[in-house]
Amino acid sequence: MSYQKVIYDVQDRIATLTFNQPDIRNPVTGDMVDEIIDVLQRVQRDDSLSVLIVTGAGKAFSAGGDVKAMRARNNDPSVVPIHLRDWYRRGIQRVPLAMEDLDVPVIGAVNGAAIGAGCDMAMMCDLRIASSHAKFGETFLNLGIIPGDGGSWFLTRQIGYQQAAKLTFTGEVIDARQALALGMVLKVVEPEALLDEAMALAREIAAKPPQALRIAKRILKQSERMNLKDFLDVCASNQALAHRTADHKEAIEAFFEKREPTFTGN
Predict the structure, then answer these.
(1) 6-206 shares its CATH topology with 210-257
(2) Helices 246-257 and 210-223 meet at what angle, rounded to 10?
(3) Could you say which DSSP state residue 266 is in?
(4) Is 60 in a helix, a strand, or coil?
(5) What is the DSSP letter of 191?
(6) Rounded-to-integer distance, Cα 163 and Cα 138, Å
(7) Cα dist. 48→1, 2, 28, 40, 200 in Å?
(8) Which parts of the chain have pLDDT scores under 70?
(9) How far is Cα 100 from Cα 231, in angstroms, rounded to an integer?
């Protein structure tokens, strides 16, 4: 796919996805969704990649849904509820599914406003670093709608039910420091340091054994959905696989030889 609404870049084992409509604050549109899905599937298939960074171009991470398009749909009598339901299923809802399917860790570098669907896409990342200029808002109720992209599922898991409920019910927009206090982000840095911080964290993660890293991400996600007994079975099976990798052997030898290991992804 030739990308028009996003930028895709790879450095070493780190991929970067940048929402690239800065003049209109990177809204989540159908065309952008198609490109995001293509990037996520591309990263998942590429065993040479270990980390994905997601960020926005310009002053916004993403301002969320296209309000002008919402208005046009409201004035179109041919758009009936069943069509809208399918539009969500075949559109934006593919993003949380693809993000959940990713075995590589995802770092959100939130450079500015992350509002509505933009806030939800930030919450879909495994880790988030925010610029001091970032703002977050679960603002759907302000427009008389709900988080149709499944954002409530992610927000509740990040900050707990009560805090997620407050943000959802009030539609309040909070700044980066408030987001840090709630646990929505790991760290707040000055704007000029944001991508460097995200890249430093990505490099630290990408230095780990690639196969074991993907397994570790997968079982973290599975732990949220499984009872302990079934989860322990999953851990035993995946541990058996990890024990027979060349990278495990290299890590053990490097430990005894007191040197840095060299991992190959085998």
Answers:
(1) no
(2) 110
(3) -
(4) strand
(5) G
(6) 11
(7) 19, 21, 28, 14, 18
(8) none
(9) 18
- Token pair of 240 as six digits: 């058996």
Say which CATH class 6-206 falls into: alpha beta
DSSP labels, 150-178: SHHHHHHHHH-HHHHHHHHHH--EEEHHH
pTM of the complete model: 0.95
pLDDT in tens, 17-52: 999 999 999 999 889 999 999 999 999 999 999 999
Residues whose CB is less than 8 angstroms from the CB of residue 235 and which lie 6 or more positions away in sequence, other chains included: 219
Hey, which bits of 42-198 come out as E strands? 51-56, 60-62, 64-65, 106-110, 113-115, 127-131, 135-137, 173-175, 187-189
- The domain defined by 210-257 folds into Lyase 2-enoyl-coa Hydratase; Chain  A, domain 2 (1.10.12)
Amino acid letter at 199? Answer: M
Residue 27 to residue 137: CA distance in whole angstroms: 14
The total of other beta-carbon atoms located within 10 Å of residue 154's CB is 22
CA nearest neighbour of 120 among 145, 84, 103 = 145
Sign of CA dihedral 254, 255, 257, 259: positive
Pairing between strand 51-56 and 27-28?
unpaired
**Cα–Cα distance, 238 to 4 (Å, whole number):** 39
Coil, helix or strand for 241?
A: helix
Return the domain boundaries, the chain: 6-206, 210-257
Pairing assessment for the beta strands 135-137 and 173-175 based on DSSP bridges: antiparallel
